[in-house]
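Page header: ASSEMBLY MODEL / two components / 668 residues total.
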Amino acid sequence: MRSTFSAQTDSLSMLKEAVKSNCTGIRYGIEFCEWKLPNQKALEDAYNLINHKNKDFTYITPRVSDNSLEKIRGHLDFLNKMGKNSVVVNDLSIINILEQYPNVKPILGRQLIYTPARCPWKQTTEYQVSFLTRRRVEKIFHMTNLNYEPTIRFFQNLGVNHVDIDWIPVCFQNYAFLVKNGLNVFVHLHLIPVTITRRCHTARFLKENELEDCSKPCQTRAFLLKQDIINVHLTLHGNTVFKYIEPTREEVKNLSKYNISNFIFTMNPATKIENQYQINALIDNLQNT
Amino acid sequence: MWWGIFDMVCLTALDKKRNPIPKILSPIRSFEAGIRVIKAGADQIYCGVTIPEIKNFVLYRGSAHEVPTYEELERIVKYAHSNSVEVVVTINQPHMTHLIEKPIQNHIRSCVDKGVDALIVGDFGVLSVIKNMPVKVPLYASTYMASLNCEAVDFLRKQGFNRVILERNLTIPEISKIVQHSNIELEVFIHGGGCSNINSSCYLYHYSFPEKEHFALLMKENICSPCTIHYEVYNLDKTGEKLESIPIMDALQYCSLCKLPELVKAGVTGFKIEGRGNPIEYQESTTRAYRELLDLLSQDRMEKFKEKLELYRRNLIAMPSTIWSLKEFLCEQKRCYYSPFLHTPYRFPLSWQASTKSKFKAWITKSMANKIRSSGQTI
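Prediction written out in full:
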């Protein structure tokens, strides 16, 4: 099975690079920060750019407050008018309003899927327990909250047939359950969200004045967070702290056994994928031949 | 006569609408705590209960934060009901799989059998389990549902929830807007050790924090939560330059005493105090403080309110296991729940740390519990 690779970006200049690359689809919008939502014109420009190049377009939305939701309504109006489109949903409110936009289909975003294995710490239980108990507990930790049929049915009844999940190799075998239950799965490479805030850690660290008027330093900067006592390295980009895992071709092949072959990579300073050459190199490196 | 009664009912309803005083929800983890917070003025109490079959599966709170047995829960419920106080149990699972379906079903049945008044639910899988069981109990949507806006609240209402607990990261104007556009009970957090991150998307504390490393941190920095520890911050570029060592995620200890008038005006149904795992004395003294201040607000005694507020700021213990007052620990550090966050200094600037160290030496000669009790009595 040949894998597909889609680029995800919130910047029009990076989007232009992605358009020129070998990726199969492009996701435009913002996954984690409502203060970085694109304006209407930027969305329309992005849509037209991608549409003319025969690549799949998907719009991404973050968790939002009421003010940002108003902005998203305008975006959904536009996408609905343009015909069949997909939107990544990370807030229950957007699922609630999607019935007003029959052409727009939801993809369940990572923030609506609970995945305990995103946790960066090693230990999995509170107590000193037997080997068997530890194995059982680990098994539960390596599942997502979609590893339960009624939850899948719940979301399917709301029109969800596609879901976004993380590149966490210990969870791969549990992703097969989602595919068996009729979900199409997209796997996000590299960055696994460990924690997200509305009170942006980057803006605070860089002494921004107001979130509403943030100068968006995250478009060019990301940070490495090291904690030697607990031996952990994390990546801070914008309002989200990530665990970084480098994907390998072997594991891409491994995932194809479970009929999972759609991958997403994010273009930003944290992944250091910012131009068409870096995109093509990544795809060449991971493509399952 | 009937018109008179009708008028009275309408006026009472109108009065309630004009000046609704939210219920105080206090945390507990034992029967004794239940008695103490009810006496201190809680309108509702909430707790988790250890699920015997999966007690090793700890996503967020360990069993040290929970009522240990269903028998103890039953005693709590009986005592609470005899004092017209409701008991809410948090199911505490933002995660459901077929491997834990049976234990969760048994758990819900046991809690409902003991007479609890509502369940807090944080996952749609758990919701479907409850809907498929022959139990009728009000359901509260947990912060794990991350409700940040009117439409999310409306979605949860349609799914059968009776109350929505709003995400901690909201501002008071945002809360007011949600209240105005929703026809469901809404609850907000007002006090306690809190998160700078969105609860349902935070995986820092979901596995038990590594024991050995945890101990090392406790010894070195006297802190225990992964979101409060110092991280070395490096530029993630070609230079890889080290910038600073700071607690960049910097979880906050929250307080809303000063913001109570605004929060009451916002019109929410419930005020929740965080801290199921905290010492009873802390749960009790915090509940008492909010009870007194809310009662003064309901009587429009603003002068007395201000006077009491100042007293509490000076005397109420800010955080368990410390001796610092709210004023020292929170106000001077600009750590206020509903104030702008970006300008808050990172925890423990050096000069402040030096002064607290000397206080710490003084503290070891006193019993913390006595200190808390005595401050409560003074007030």
